[in-house]
Structure formats: C-alpha cells, structure tokens
Description:
Blueprint: E1 2-4, H1 6-10, E2 16-27, E3 34-45, E4 50-63, E5 70-85, E6 104-106, E7 111-113, H2 115-125, H3 164-175
Amino acid sequence: xxxxxxxxxxxxxGETRDYEIEEEEVRLNDEGDRGxxxxxxxxxxxxxxxxxxxxxxxxxxxRCARCTRGFPGTLAMHIEEVFFPSLNMESxxxxxxxxxxxxxxxxxxxxxxxxxxxxxxxxVAEDLxxxxxxxCRGLCPDCGxxxxxxxxxxxEAPFDERWSALVELAGRxxxx
Length: 176
C-alpha cells in the first residue's frame, strides 16, 4: 500500500489518482498479526500535500470474546488523511515537519504509505468484543467447557452453608 506520488506532487491542486487495492497484506500490530486489505484509494493533490481518501475492507483473524475461538472477520473502514511531503519538490531541501506530531508524512523518496493509517484505523473501527456468531454461548464459568460444542453441559449449583437453616425449615414445613 505504498504509492509513489512524485508526479502528483508536481501537479496542480485538485489533481487526482485512483488506485484499486487487491489482497494487499498489512501488519496490524507489533505481535505480527496480519490482515488482507481490498478497496479503493483516491489520492488528491492539496495545497499542503496529498489527501488520501480510501474505502477499504480488512480481512483479519478475530478471537471471540465469549468462547475465545478464532474466526475470520472483516472490518470496513474509511480513511481520510492528508499526507505532508518531507522534501521540497523544486529544491530537494528537507521541509520543516507539520505542527501536528501525529501527521502522516510522505517519505524522502516521495512514497505515501497507507499501512500505518490502516493499522490505526483498525483499532478505532474494530468491535470491542467480537463474536464468532451472535448466539455464541461462550465458556462454562466453572470448568471452561465450550458451551457451543456441549449445549447440555451443566453443574450442580454449589450449596451455600449460610442457607442451611432455611433449607432445614423448608424440609420440616414440607413434612407437615
């Protein structure tokens, strides 16, 4: 998801380039998790740099919040970010960085890299508790059995000794 924007940076404000992304693999975190991106990117020359407007679908491996089983997931995201050049196109001199320290930069080789915005937007767009299916029953809180695979699984409820006097009283009332 790297785009050479040297020609676009030489053009007038408002010029655009459109790209299709097909099965581009991206690293999603420092642990090495990866995903596959498909979608459309429009790069537009702005007065300050290049606006990247991307509509993407990210296919990734999810982990169910209830049963902890892995499952394939998809995440739709829309990215709109301005990328600022790091070199002046006419002189080749290094430009001062933008005021925003979090701003995205076009590198000294005029490459606009969308991988970092995809990684960041993924964290914003993802479900906090992804489910493998809406009716996932999760794990047994006592022994950890997957209740989707063993739906009839159950345990005797543990008896709380604090209720023993009441149970004894109920037993006497039943006999009478």
